[in-house]
Every structure is written in C-alpha cells, then in structure tokens.
Amino acid sequence: MFKPNNDNHSGATHFVVLDCEFLKDLPLYERYRRADPDPARCRWPMKRVVSASVMALEVQGSELTVTAFKSFSGASEDRLLVQLFAFLAERPRHKLCTYGGVATDVPVLRVAAMEHGLKLPLQLRYSDRSRHVHLDLAIAMKGGEGDYAHMSEVATRLRVPCKLAGHAGSVPQLFSRGNFRAIEALSEVDIISTGFILASYLGVQGEILSAKAAQLGIIRYVRPLRGRARYAELLGNVADRLRREINQELNTWMARVA
To answer: Which residues pair with 22 in a beta bridge?
Structure first.
C-alpha cells in the first residue's frame, strides 16, 4: 500500500480517483488513414480529452474521507490538461485510482501531454514503479487471463450506483452543443462509482472499518457541491439505503453482543 509522508497526515494513505471522457478526433483519424495503407480502427491515440474528474481521498484511522472533488472540461485539450496536471502535481504522494485507466485514460493522457509539450505529474509517468502509484481496480478484480469486467458489472454485484448521468456515447452530441457541464457529469458519476468500489476493496483488505460508511461519506461530500446535477437526487436515494443498511447491521451486532 502506498504510504505517503506529507503534510500533517503521517500514517495516512491518499488516493486520487480519476476518470476522463473522450471525443474521437475524426480529422486526425482520416490523416492517419491516408498515411497508413493498412489502417487500424479508430483507437485511443485518436481520442482527445474533453472532460476529466478527480476526487481526492484520505484513509486514516480505518476511515476513508473525501478531501477534494473537481472537474475540468472544454474544447481546449491543452488547457484542460494543464488544470488536471496541476491538481495531481499538488498531490505528488497520492496514489492514482481508476477503473480501467491503464487501458485508456492513462495512455491518452500521456500521448496528449507529448503532443502539447506538457510535463506529466508523477502518477502518470511510466516506470517500473507504476503499479505502486496506480491502482487500477479493473486489473485488481479481473477474472482469468484477459477477462476484464465492466465497471457496471462489478457495480451491479456490489449495489453501487453506476452511469447515473448517462453513457459515454452521448459525448459527441453534448460536445457539439457545447454542454460541457453534462459531459463533466458523466466523468463525475464514474469517479463516484469508482470511489464506492474502492471503499469496498479497501474494506475487505482491512484498510477501512466500514465500506458503507465510507460510501455514505462520499455522497455527503459530493451532493452539496453538485446539488443541481441530475444525479444528485439519485445519490440521495442511495444515501437513504446506506443509512438503513448501516443501522440494520448495527442493530444486529448489538443484539448479538447483548
């Protein structure tokens, strides 16, 4: 486990949960097709970042708490990346956490940084220690060789809210309308879901005492910030369920020890 020694939080573990939304750059793909006599399909090098959401978490004293929640979006990819990289650079000892980020988010961020001449924050640099600064939950929870589960599959099993703001397929239409707030919502609900799964993962690892209490804490932090988002009301319903389940578990435990 990644154990930083910074600020006044000695002994704490820190994470930054990250998710990006992308748009295929079709003119770039056409230029590539003209250059390659046997072109591949439009894959991740042809994608541009149009939104990125991040949530900073701290694990200390068997509790998980949120310390920051931000989104960046816009038609200017380089400007977006400058903001995102600054957020990560301010937290150099935070471990990156994604769901499937090794496959898409991280390589797209790297190639975009190369194109725009930007310095990568520590969490995105490639080295033989990459696995120590990045927890990809899709890899941590995969089945047999190459058998990666979708986040929605794991979320369904764990009763975790997922895709509350829609799906990535709507990004081109939202982008054409200039509705970047709606695109941000897509990445925000994904980092909330990833944060919930991380809480469950840390719970079974013995890193935190209660995954459900941690999940409830995430909702309590996010809802006041995003009260106008369509997904805020749905998160309220999830919070009500979590409170009921926590109370039931507490009552069951008290009955056993009585």
So the answer is: 49
Query: Partners of 58 in the beta sheet?
Result: 14, 65
Q: How far apart are CA 192 and CA 214, in angstroms?
A: 11
Residues 6+ apart with CB under 8 A from 28: 46
The pairing of strands 13-24 and 47-60 is antiparallel
pLDDT of residue 131: 65
Dihedral angle of Cα 190, 196, 200, 206, to the nearest 10 degrees: 110
Maximum Cα interatomic distance, the chain, rounded to a whole number of Å: 75
pLDDT single digits (tens) 33-62? 999 999 999 999 999 999 999 999 999 999
Parent domain of 198: 13-210
CATH number at residue 43: 3.30.420.10
Q: Domain total for the chain?
A: 1
Q: Which of these, 106, 165, 99, lies nearest to 138 by C-alpha position? A: 99
CB 117: neighbour CB atoms within 10 A?
Answer: 7
pLDDT in tens, 62-98: 999 999 999 999 999 999 999 999 999 999 999 999 9
Distance in angstroms (rounded) separating the CA atoms of residues 43 and 57: 31
Question: Is 2 contained in some domain?
Answer: no
Q: Which residues pair with 95 in a beta bridge?
A: 15
Give the strands of the sheet with 134-136, arranged side by side. 63-73, 47-60, 13-24, 95-98, 134-136
Residue 204 lies in a domain: yes
Residue 115 falls within a domain, yes or no?
Answer: yes
